Amino acid sequence: MTRYDDIPYEDRRNPNLPWGYWIYIDDEVRGLPPLVDEYGHRWRSLREALWIDRLGMTGNYQFGHVDEEQVEFLLAVLAMIDRRVVCVEGVVADVFGDGWHATAHYAAWLSGERLIEPTPTLTSAKLTPEGQAILVMLASTRPADRAAMPIGPSGLHPFAQLRPEPDREAMEAAIRKAEAALPKDTVRFMRSGGPGRSMIVLLGAANAKLPMAETHWSISFKRAHHRDHFYAWLLAQPDRWQDWYRIAREQRAGALTEHLLTLFVGQDCEERRI
After folding, report:
1. Which domain holds residue 88?
2. Origin, by domain of life (predicted)?
3. 124, 140, 161 — which closes off a domain?
4. 110 in the same domain as 148
5. For residue 188, which of 15, 119, 157, 269 sits 20 to 30 Å off, Cα-Cα?
């Protein structure tokens, strides 16, 4: 693998040109890869040269479909960093399977390869000159079946943007303040669930002789932050709780879920003007 650990990329190459501009085409020898680098190594594509030689990410096997998917993923991440959209809600769950450690590891890898400036997280990342040159090359060499697809989440489902850790203290303080202002009513939404099981439940009058409450509806979330975000939205509308309770009691629990999600998404679209 060819590496220049002590010389900055912009001192060795022209940072205004795509990565790999120094590699030339030699297709005179039949049966051999047509691209030749400065050391005489031959490659089938610039992407292969980047992945195998520059990044050292492939062993003795040839650059294949799995490698192409990883390179396209790298392009999506670099593009999101370049666009400064790495703080959009919902990314870690989509990109790295809800794994914050995997996200941090990818940031460490990009930083170690000097594709981004040194940073502990992707949310504050900035492309280096070489990272920018690689982004331009990858965007210009996308396979034909991906060329018409936008770079990023929609082109690499289920990948999405990366966001920072939520401010748990601020969220909790806002929830406590809203709860304290709620009217004393039998019908109420509450947070529930133990570790690893974040829920919201709707309590209402029970069919019993004593004035007791029972659960009429519930919804579960994989992450407590997502649960609390939705719960805070519910707390802002206590005047609607009686109507929502009637939907759950007189129709079915699923009907209330559909109704609430429709309202929630509708409000989000209105705020974003989508």
Report:
1. 9-161
2. Bacteria
3. 161
4. yes
5. 269
Could you read off the pLDDT of 206-239 as tens digits, one per residue?
665 555 678 888 999 888 888 888 998 898 888 7
Q: What is the pTM of this model?
A: 0.54
**Does residue 3 sit within a domain?**
no
Would you place residue 160 in the very low, low, confident or very high pLDDT band (cuts 50, 70, 90)?
A: very low
* Amino acid, res. 187: V
Residue with tokens 């109704």: 259
% of the chain residues with pLDDT over 90: 25
